[in-house]
Amino acid sequence: xxxxxxxxxxxxxxxxxxxxxxxxxxxxxxxxxxxxxxxxxxxxxxxxxxxxxxxxxxxxxxxxxxxxxxxxxxxxxxxxxxxxxxxxxxxxxxxxxxxxxxxxxxxxxxxxxxxxxxxxxxxxxxxxxxxxxxxxxxxxxxxxxxxxxxxxxxxxxxxxxxxxxxxxxxxxxxxxxxxxxxxxxxxxxxxxxxxxxxxxxxxxxxxxxxxxxxxxxxxxxxxxxxxxxxxxxxxxxxxxxxxxxxxxxxxxxxxxxxxxxxxxxxxxx
Length: 269
Description:
By secondary structure, the protein is an alpha+beta fold. It has two domains: 123 residues, N-terminal domain of MutM-like DNA repair proteins (Alpha-Beta Barrel), CATH 3.20.190; 120 residues, Helicase, Ruva Protein, domain 3 (Orthogonal Bundle). The chain is built from seven helices and eleven strands. It has a five-stranded mixed β-sheet. It has a four-stranded antiparallel β-sheet with strand order 1-7-8-6, covered by helices on one side. It has a two-stranded antiparallel sheet with strand order 10-11. Strand 10 and strand 11 form a beta hairpin. Helix 4 packs across helix 7. It is elongated, with a radius of gyration of 20 Å. The mean pLDDT is 95.
């Protein structure tokens, strides 16, 4: 699933390619891709609206249009591609937006889990998301208080989008390794210096991901280079780059989790 750095990369690319273009037509090929309104209303309502700005909130891409906001969540296998013309449609292009520039924006989604929303109230979709990792309001002190307001294993907690927006499996594993914290650690047991270290690691790892245009993983998202900088993710059995201990993989909160048992010891053994 594309995470914050991948979604940020896609958003930045789209901003260069389609900003100020108008949507002249829309073809919804997989009607269930439209979460709200219904597909027919979506097609009617989005026509002739201009793309005024693009932004990201968590893993959502937001198109500010003339009257509404188009929100897109890529989920497991989604991507947004811009082509200069309409003669290269793929069988997995679930929604096709034709622009007045002659370009087309293609919402390509092999597994069909991705969703789009068209609304004048974007908070109805993203209002329950937690803070952005790079927000000025997301301070180490606020993070520490949030950790102690929960009593959960740190790995599943960081994946909870209502706690912190944008992190997924890759960047959570990498952040915990960078901070030297076991993914099994209970959040309320994390002291202030360790919390501050994790806060810095999250920002550091995400920024590194953005600088490398995200990570290219399997067939889901291609174009990034952060996979060349993985220190634990998908390195099961390989020596830790810090200490040489073989990287281990386990399941925590129903998610595959990569860690170094030496650099990330579980408190209490």
